[in-house]
Amino acid sequence: MAVHRKKDCTPSAWFWESPDTLAQLEVVRQWIGKHYKKPPPAKKSIVTLQLLQFQEDAFGRQVTNPALSKLSAQCFLDLRPGGGLCHILGTAYRFKAEQGWSVSHLWSCSHMPLILIVF
């Protein structure tokens, strides 16, 4: 499957919601459950697309003075067990649990200073 970068720098919902990618995200979900969180996060709570959008909104090209640089896209595309995406999402879920947030609050703008700690 070919992955094409969109011109507006937003994440590709088509890629992250495709059946092939969702099957690979199941492996990521199970790995997170084994190494970071017991039980594994629900299928609907794999928030890769939201994380990518947050990163673009907070650190992207349109931001005049970004606090940090963005994580490499290669890290997000590493869908192997123990790969980049596993560690990114595992760290985010662990931080969310430590803060007592629900999944819907994970990328809330009101939590921006704390979210920056994750990065």
Automatic annotation (TrEMBL):
Please state every residue range assigned to the domain named Chromo: 1-119
Pfam families cross-referenced by the UniProt entry? SWIRM-assoc_2 (PF16496)
Q: Which InterPro entries match?
A: MARR_BRCT_CHROMO, SMARCC_N
For this entry, the protein name equals SWI/SNF related BAF chromatin remodeling complex subunit C1b
- Which species is this UniProt entry from? Cynoglossus semilaevis (Tongue sole)
